[in-house]
Amino acid sequence: MSSPGSVDVCIVNYRGADDVREAVRTLGEWPHGTLWIVDNSEDAAQADALASIAGAQLLVPQKNLGFGRGCNLAFERSQADFFLLLNPDARIEAADLLRLADAMRADARLAALSPRIWWNPERSFLLPAAFPQTPWVTIAQTLAPGARGLTMKSSARYLARQRAMAASHATTPVDFIAGAVLLLRRGAVQEAGGLFDPAYFMFYEDSDLSLRLRRRGWRLGVTGAADAVHEYRHKAFKGALMMQAREVYFRKQYPGFWRATGGLRRLDAFVRQVPLAEWFDVLPRPCRTLDDFNEQSGSARIEAFSPSPLTMPAIFRPGAPAAFTREEWALLEPAGYAARIAGRTRWAWFERSATE
C-alpha cells in the first residue's frame, strides 16, 4: 500500500457531537492530514464537546451554514491533495481511507471516489451508489406510478448493477456521487469551480458537483476495495429541504427543462400516488415490533427494501436473502417500506410504526 500523500478529513456537525466523536474514534489516529470539524449547531455545549477531540481543527461559524457551505469552510482552509467528506453518522477506518487514496492516486483523471458503503454496523445491507438526478430520470419517476411492470423491471436491473459493483474491487465509473463518504481530488474540484455551490443549504449539492466535474472531463467512481458504514435513516422532515434544493438544482443545471416544465410545476401536476394494493402484497397491520413483522410476513427473507414505493433506490443485501435481525429492524425509522422478499413474485409493503 502506497503512501496516500496529504488527505484531510472534514466532518460537518449539527447537534450530533456524540456521532462525530464516534466517527473520529473509528478513524483513529490520522497522521496523513488534518481533521476538520465544522460545528453548525449554534450551541456552545456542542462546540465545547467537539473542542475536546484531540488533534482536530474546530471551526465554529456564527450561524448554521448548512452542509455544503460548512464543507466549503474547511475546504478553503485545507491545502491537502485529497479531501474526504465524512458524515457524522458515517464510519470509515484508517486502512479503508488509505485504500481509497491509493485508488485515487492510481487514476489521474479520477476526481471523486466513494467506498462500498454498508447501511449497518453488522454489514449485512449495502447502500446503492448515488441515484442519477437528470430530467429523464425525473420524468420517469413522475410517470412511474402508472407503469408498474416497467418500474419493477427497472428496479431489478438497478439492483443487479449495484450488486455487481459491490462485488468488484475495481473502480466502477458512475455519473453521480453522494457526499456521505467521499474522497475528492483538490485540483479537480478547483478546476470545476470549487467545492459546493453555496446556493444549496442541504441536498443536491453533491449532484451539482458531479455534473460540474464530469463536464470538465473528470471521472467519478465507486470501489469495493474500501468499505465504510453509513447508518442512513429515513427522516420525513428532510422532504421539504430536498424539494427546495431540487428547485435550485434544476433551475441551475437544466434551465431549458426548468423553463419547459414551468419550474417543475407542470411536471409535478402529473404526480400520482402509487396504488399500494395493486403493486404490493400489503401487510394487513402496522408493524410495531420485529415479531409483528415476522408474524405477518412469515419471517420473510429480505433481499432489498426502500422507503420509496417506486422501489428505488433500495437498501440491499449483497449476499443471500435473510430475515430481518433485531439490529436491522432497530435501524428502521417509522415509515412505510417496500420490501423485495425472496421467493415472492411481488414486493411487499409494510408500515413500521413507532417503536415499542
From TrEMBL:
<feature type="domain" description="Glycosyltransferase 2-like">
    <location>
        <begin position="9"/>
        <end position="118"/>
    </location>
</feature>
<comment type="similarity">
    <text>Belongs to the glycosyltransferase 2 family.</text>
</comment>
<keyword id="KW-0328">Glycosyltransferase</keyword>
<dbReference type="GO" id="GO:0016757">
    <property type="term" value="F:glycosyltransferase activity"/>
</dbReference>
<dbReference type="InterPro" id="IPR029044">
    <property type="entry name" value="Nucleotide-diphossugar_trans"/>
</dbReference>
<dbReference type="Pfam" id="PF13641">
    <property type="entry name" value="Glyco_tranf_2_3"/>
</dbReference>
<dbReference type="InterPro" id="IPR001173">
    <property type="entry name" value="Glyco_trans_2-like"/>
</dbReference>
<protein>
    <submittedName>
        <fullName>Glycosyltransferase</fullName>
    </submittedName>
</protein>
<dbReference type="Pfam" id="PF00535">
    <property type="entry name" value="Glycos_transf_2"/>
</dbReference>
<keyword id="KW-0808">Transferase</keyword>
